[in-house]
Amino acid sequence: MRLARVVGNLVSTIKEETHYNYKLLIVEYLDGSGNPVEAQQIVFDGADAGIGDLVLVNVDGGAAKQLLKDKQIIADNTACGVVDHWTFDGKVYGK
Predict the structure, then answer these.
(1) 17, 76, 77, 93: most buried, per Cβ within 10 A?
(2) What percent of the chain has a predicted confidence (pLDDT) above 90?
(3) 95 lies in a domain?
(4) Can you give the pTM of this predicted structure?
(5) Is the model's pLDDT at 94 over the cut of 90?
(6) 79, part of any domain
(7) What's the longest Cα–Cα distance across the chain?
(8) With 0-12 CB in 10 A as exposed, 13-18 as middle and 19+ as buried, what is 55?
């Protein structure tokens, strides 16, 4: 699991057949203090998240099949929860 912020939506009119009807998000991964790290990534939305939301991203491809309830899908990264706040080094973030 990794913490990320949703920074955009990805719209694609032509997709792999197993990817139709799934919302795609553009996220930036965050460190424990909420600072962006690494390049932005595209993830499936399994948490009904929107731009600006903090999400937990499952980076294990096998879990996407369970989160999206689809045995045919091929996906590595899936937003699986929206985060209200978190604590790191005694400080509360995300409120």
Answers:
(1) 77
(2) 44
(3) no
(4) 0.84
(5) no
(6) yes
(7) 46
(8) buried
